Task: structure prediction
Amino acid sequence: MKPHRSPLGLALLGLTAALSLPPGTWAADRADLARPEPAPLPFPLVARFENFGEKDGLPSHKIHCVLKASDGRLWLGTGNGLCVRGADGRFRRYGPEDGLSHPAVLSIAEDPRTGDLWIATMRGLSRLSGGRFTSFTQTDSGLPNNVVYGVAVVDGTVWAATPAGAGAYNIREKSWKIYDHNNAPMEEPWCYAIAPGRDVVYIGVWAGGIVEHDPRLGSFKAYRDPDGDFQFQLTPDSGPIADITSWVAYDDGILWQATYFGLSRYDTQEATWRTWVQDKTPLVSNFINSVFARGHVAWVSTDRGACVTDGTTWATYAVDEQGRGLVRIDRPGGAPETRRMATRLADGFVTAIWADDHEAWFATSNGLSHAVFANQAAVAANP
Amino acid sequence: MTPRRIALRAAQVVIAAAAVALAGGFTARTHQRIMTGRPNLAVTTCTHCHLRSAFKLPWQKPRPHHDSPGGIAVSPDGRTLYIALDDKDEVAEADSATLAVIRMARVPGGPFGLALDAQGKRLFVACPQQDRVAVLDTRDLAEVASIGVGVRPTDVVYCQTRDGERLVVPNSGSDDISILTLSPLAELARVAAGREPYAAAVLDGGRRVAVANRMATHDQMLTAPASEVTVLDPASSRVLDRLALDSAHLAEGIAAVPGKGWVLNSMVRVRNLVPITQVKDGWVMASGLAISRADGQVTQVPLDEANAYFPDPSGIVASPDGRRAFVASGGSDVVTVVDLDRLGSWLAGSSAADRDDAILDMALSCRYVVARIPTGCDPRHLALSPDGRRLYVAERLDDSVLVVDTASLKPLGRIVLGDGGRDDPIRQGERVFTRARYTFQGGFSCRSCHPDGHVDGLSYDFDGSGVGDNLLANRSLCGVAGTEPFKWNGKNPTLQFQDGPRFARVLMRTDPIPDPQLDELATFLVNLPPTRTMPWSQVGKGLTPAQQSGRALFFATKRTDGTPIPRALRCQTCHRPPLYTNRLISSVGTQSPRDPKEGFDTPHLIGVGAVGPYLHDGRAKTLEEIWTVYQHDDLHGVSSYWSKEQLNDLVEFLKTL
Amino acid sequence: MTPRTCALLGAAALLMAACHPEAPRGSLVLTQVPAGVAPPPAATVMDVRYPPGSRVVLLSPPLRTDAAEVLSGGLAAAGDPCVSWDGRWVYFAGKAAESSEWQIYRVRAGGGSPERVTRMPGGAMDPAVAAHGELVFSSPVPKAGRQWTSPEPAALYGQWPGQAPRRLTFAPDGAADATALRDGRILFVSAAAHDGPRGRRHLCLFTINNDGTEIAAYAGQDDGVDAVRRPRELGDGRIAFLAARSDAPEARDWAECVRSAAPFATRANLFAFPSQGCRSVGPTPEGDLLACVDTRGMEGRSMAANAAVYRVAPGAAALGAPVFEDPRWDSIEATCVARRDEPSGHTSIVMPGATHGTILCLNVNDSCDPEQDGGSGRATQLRVTVLAGGAQPRVLGTVPVASDGSMLARLPSGVPLGFDALDAAGRVLRHQPPVVWLQPGEIRACVGCHEPRNHSPRNVRPQAVQAEPQRLDLPPEAATPRTPAP
Result:
C-alpha cells in the first residue's frame, strides 16, 4: 500500500481560505447533471461523493491522510488522532492514550509483508501492530526528528521523511540510518515524502527536488529543477517542475512529483519528464498537497480540488463559489467539459487521496469524502 | 663483613627500597590520576585498567558439556521421542516403550526447540546458537535443510494453513518472529514481537499461532510492565493481536487448550514497583497462569499457594481433552496439575472484578490445582503423548526425562540422557541458581530475575536503607566475570559477597546460601558467557561503516572540530576495554533526589545492547536516551558535539559489544 | 588445659553419651498426669494443665507401661514437651518444687537429668524449637483463669543457647503455644484484635518471623472458634490444632485443621470422626497422626478410662485402639522422637539499638468490606494509637495519607500499634485496635486496612515512598515497654 498525505499544506490548513474555486474560474456548460460521457476515460469517474464529518464520528474535521489497508479497513490520519472505519461504518479513534505518539497524524503506510501500519505524527513515528502501538521518537530511537511528514515501508525498511533528513529503520536489524545533506545530494535535510520505486526509494526533499536512492548500492541520484527557478517554468518537460517537493508517488514505472508550483511526471523507463502548471494545462492549481499514483494514473490533491490524470486526459473535481460540486473533463485535443454534480467534495482543500478501481477516498481540510465511481460501461455506451 | 657493616648495608637497602616504593607509588598515583582524569581518585590497583584479558576469563575456557534436555517432540504414533540437547549440539531419539535412547543426531547450533510435521517425517529444530532452523529427516535423523532466522530462536512450531505449511519461530534475541514456508523453505516474513519471544503454540488447527514473550516491557520507569502474547495468522503473516499480560514476566510457556479456545501462559507476576519489604504473600513475585480467551480477555490466576510457592513456571501443556494442564516449576522441582474444568467453572461464576483480582488471591489455587508432581532438578520443557496418557518432563539439570502416567499422576520411569554432571562445579552452581529453596517459602530463585543469567529488564526497590531510597535496575550476570566490584554502589567485591548474607537480609528473607553452595553459585556465574547480540550471520564479519563510525566516536579523544575531550569524559576512560569498565565508581549526573550517593559502579558493556533499560535505576528506556534525555553538562561523556547520525552510529557500535 | 585433662573430659563425655544414648526409633515422649487425682487449687495456668506429679516420660517400643522412662526426674511437675529437630533433645516446661516458677528444661531424648534453660521472671511455658536450635517460649506464666486477660500477658521470647532471651511479641492479650513452621516462622496463639475488655475476644493463629518481625494473621481470625490451642504443622500441608468453645480449662477440645494453602478458607475437622476430648495432636514421621484423647465415656470405653495415645492413619473412619494407655496416668500429650527437617532460618533485619520501625501501607482504602468499615470514603490521614503505659489505647499522632491511599511512617517499636483511617472530616472509616507491632529497625508493609486475607499487593508504585516517612514518638511516660525483657 502506498502512503499518502499532504506535507506543507497541512501546516497551511489553518491559514488557507481558498476552499472553493475563485469566481469565474469555471462555468458549467449546462445544468444537465446526467449527461453521459462522450468516450471512455482512462480512469474511473466519480459519480457522487458521500461525505463524513465530525457529526459522523470523525475526531476532527481536518483529515490529513487516508489509506485503505490490505485487510479492507480504512485508516485516516486526522488532526486529532488516528481513525479507522469499521465494517459497520463507524469511526474509531486512537490517540496518545492508546499509545499513539501524537494526535496529529500526517501519514500512514502499511508494511506489505506483515500488515503493520506505520504512522507518521507530529511527534514521532508509531507502529500499529496487532492492535498495539509502539512509538519511536528522536530521543528514544534513531529517528532523525520527531516531526514525521511521510512514511513508507520498502523491502523491510521503514522510511520516515523528517525535517532533519530521511530516516531508514531496518526492521530486522533494528538499526537506523539517516540520509541528509551530509551524506546525500540534498541542499538541506528537510524531507517531505518517501515513495517506494522499483528497487529504489524516492525522497521528496524541500528545495532539493527528488533524491533517488538505491539501498543495494548505497547510491544516490538527484532530480532537480533544470531551470532552478520555482517561480517560472523556463524549461518545461525537462525535469522536475520545481525543487520545492511537497510529495512524491510512484507506481508502475511512473514517478509523480507534487510541488507548490505544479505537477511533474517522470517515466522511469523512458527517462522522460512532463510538467503541468495551472495556467497552461488542465491542472486546477499549482498548489499541490499530495499525489497518489495507481498504475499510470495520478490522483492529485490541491488547494482547489482534486485532479485525476494519466497525463493526457484529466478529470477535475472542485467546488464552485456557490458551494456546488463541479467536474471538468479535459480530453486531448478536445474542449473542456464542465458539469455540475449532485454531490460535492467535502471541501475544495484536498490533502490526500486513496483510490483503487472501485472507489476513492478524499481527505480534505473539512471532512472526508467517499467517491462512488460511475459505471464506465454505461458511459461508453452513451457518447 | 662485620655485623655493623651488615646492618648498615641492610639499612641502605631498606632506605633504597622505600625510596623506590615511594617514587613508584607517586608515579603510579600520578599515572592513575592523569589517565582517569580524576585528580582526587582514591588508591586503586593497576588491574582496574591493566592485566585484564578477556581471553583469560572463565567463560572463555572449555567447560564440561551436559545432556541437558531442552524441547521434546513426540511422534504422531507416540512411539518415539525426540529430545533436544542444546549443550551437546545433539538431538536424541528415544523409544517411549523402553525409555531407551535409540540414536543421536548431531545438530550444530544448540538445538533447543523441536517440532514435527503432521506425519512425523520431518523434525524441525530451532538452533539458538547459530540463529537457524534445521530440518531433519526422521528416517535417518540426517539434516536435510537449514534456514537462517532471527537471533536466538528458542522454539519452532509446525502448522498447516490455508496457504500451505508454515513454521513459526520465535527469535528471542531479536525480539521478532520468523514465519517460514516449507515449499520452498523460505522466510515469508519476520514480524515484530514483544521482548524475548520464547515459545509458540498452534491454535485453531493452524489458523492462528500464539507466541509467548518471556520478558516484560514498560513504557517508562515506575510504570507497570507487561509481557506480550503475540497472536498471528501464519498464513498471511499478519499480527492479529498483542495480548498484554499485566506485570507478568518470565512468561516462557504457552499452550493451547483444545475445546476451550484458551491460550495458557505460565508467568511470573512481579511486584517490582512495590518496595521489597517482605517475601510473604507474593510481595516480590508469584507464579501464575494467564488464560487468554477467544474474545481477547485475559485473566491471571495464581499457581502458588498462600504459604508455598512454585516459582519459575516454564513449560506448559494441555491435555488433548482440554481438561487438564501441566505446568513445570523449575524453581521447586514440581509439575503442577491444573484442573481446567474447575478453573473454567470458577471463571464462569466470577465477576469481572473477581477476575481482575484473581492473581492477587494466593489462596485461590486450591480451587483448581489438584496435584503437584515431584520431579528432578529444574523441570522445563513438557510434552504429552498424542493420546494424552503420558507426560514427559525434561529434567534439565538432571539430564533426564521423567515419564508420568497422567491418570495416576505417578512416575513411570525416566529416560536417562546423562549423569547429571554431579562432579561439575559449574553444574552444581546452576542448580543453586535455579533452586528457590534459598528464599523464604521458596518464593523465587536467582533465575526468577535472571533468566539464563540475563536480566528481566525491571527495576526493583530494595529496602536496605529505607523504603523508596534504592530503586535499582537489574543487571545481567552474563559476562560478569572479571567485572567486580558488584552492585550499583560497587560495594560488593566478590560474587559471594554480593549473593551472601546481604542478599538474604534484604531480598531472600531466609538463611544465607551456605558457603559451599555460594562458591558453586559464583563458579556458575563467572562461567556465564556474555549475551550474543549480533546476528550469527554477522559474527566475525567485522564492523559495518556505521559501527566503525560509532567505534571511532567511542574512542575519540577530540571533538569533530579538533577540540580535545578531557580524559575523564572520554567513553573509553571509564568503559575501558576489554570489558569496557574500569571497575570504578563514576558520577555521570544521574543521582536522583533519593539516591544516597552521586556515584555508581561503572557497568561493563559486554552485551549492553540486550540489557536495557539503562542507568542505575533503569530510567533510560533505550541506549539513545542515555544521551538524549539523561545527559547533563556532558557528565556522561562529552556528547554535545554529536550529530544524530553519530549517536546512531555509536549505538550501533555498542550493540556489537 | 593439660592433655590429661582433655583426655579425662573426653572420656567423661563419651561415658555420658554412652549412658544416655539416643532414643530408639519409634519412641514417644509423653506428658502424663496422675489419673483420677483431683487437681488442687492452682496458681497458674500451667498448674492447672499439669498438676503436681505430672511428668514427661520417654516411651520406647514396644510402648509398654513398664517401659516408660521419666525424663523430668526430680521435678515437682512437668509437661508440654517438644523435641529438637535433630531428635536428640526434649524441651519441656517444669517446676522444681511446688513453690517454684515454671521454667523450660531440656533433657537428652535418650534419657538423663533435666537441665533448666530459662530463668524468666514470672516463669516460662510452651517451649518450641526454631531454626538453628533457638528456643522459643512464652513468659510470664499467667495466673490460672487469666491466660488471656492477664495484666501482664505472656509474650513469646527467643533464646539462643547460652544467650539472653529476646522478646519476640508484643500482643496486647499475650501469646502462647508457639510452634516452628518449616518455613521458619513461629506459629502461635493469640487473641484476635478487639476493643478492650468489652470487645469480643477469641483466639486464633498468628505468625511471626523468628526475630519477631512481620506479625501476621494466619488462621481463625474470621471464622475461628472461641479458643484454639497447640497448633502443629503436619507433613501434608495442614496445620492441626485443638479447638474449644472457650479457653476455660474444663472445656473439651476437638481437633481441627486448616490447609496452609488457604488457611482462611479451609477450616475443617481433622478427623473423619468426632474428636471431643482430644488433648494433643501431632505428626508422625510416617505420615500418620499421633493423638492423645480423653476417652472417658466414649463408645466402647468406660467412664473409668483415661486419656490414651492413638495413632490415626490419614482418612481413618474411627479412632481405633490406643497404641498406649496406662490406667494410672492420663497421657495427655504425645510427640514422636525423630529427626526432622530443620526449619528455614531467617536473616534478621532487626537493629537492636533502634527505637523505631517503618511501616508502609500501600492503600489504606483497600478493604474487603468497605461498607462495614464505615463507608467507601477515602482516607486522608491515619491516626496511630498505641497501647503503652495504660490499659487503654492512646493516640500517638496522625500521619498523612497520599492521594493513592498509601502511607509511610516511622513508628515506635516494641509496642502494640493500632490505626484509624480518617476521612477529611475526621470520621473513622476503618478501625484497627492495637494488635500489631514493629521490631526495632523493621520495615513492614501491608496491602491495606482490612484487606482480604492472603492477598498480594498490586504492582503499583505507592506515592508515599516518594517522601521521607513521618515519625511519631512515644510520649516520655509511655516510652518504657510494659513488659520489660529480662
Notes: The radius of gyration of chain A is 20 Å. Chain A has one domain: 8-381. Confidence is low (pLDDT under 50) at residues 1-20, 30-34, 376-383 of chain A.
